[in-house]
Design goal:
151 residues, mainly alpha, two-stranded antiparallel sheet, 2 strands, elongated
Length: 151
């Protein structure tokens, strides 16, 4: 089994004793793409959240537009299906009068698969960020500090 890659911070700490060529993470050159005009609701909110994060870590280009649209649209579908599943439950009345699996469950599953697939490309999990050489977008305070500061 292959070993996991070292995070860039650890490579920097250990140095380069073998004088191998170091791959430094590229920073964004073209910046944040514009959202499509028809992106609304949850999809637009996710676009804003994701592009803000990707811009902070320098891992976004204008060419990422289509992939971001797919990801954000999948998130909107996932969220709508989640709400429908919450409202109607896992079983609904079928056309023959019996109970069947709520179709929203399959929509959630399909949307989650798309989100996981596209999310890997942008580093949306810790392992993906490590593989892509993306550090954290440290804002100086974590959520706990912010919550405690509000008290």
């Amino acid at each position: 089994m292959a070993r996991d890659r070292k995070p860039p911070e650890l490579k920097l700490l250990h140095g380069n004793p073998s004088n191998e060529k170091q791959n430094t993470p590229a920073k964004s050159k073209t910046g944040r793409p514009r959202p499509p005009a028809d992106l609304k609701g949850e999809a637009f909110a996710e676009w804003s959240r994701i592009t803000t994060y990707l811009e902070k870590v320098g891992h976004i280009e204008s060419v990422d537009h289509a992939a971001l649209v797919v990801y954000c649209s999948a998130w909107a579908s996932f969220n709508d299906a989640r709400l429908a599943l919450e409202e109607h439950g896992p079983l609904v009345m079928g056309r023959d009068g019996g109970y069947v699996k709520n179709p929203a469950a399959q929509i959630m599953k399909d949307a989650a698969a798309i989100m996981l697939s596209y999310g890997q490309r942008f580093g949306f999990t810790p392992k993906d960020r490590q593989n892509l050489g993306i550090g954290s977008a440290d804002t100086g305070e974590d959520e706990l500090d912010q919550a405690l500061g509000a008290l």
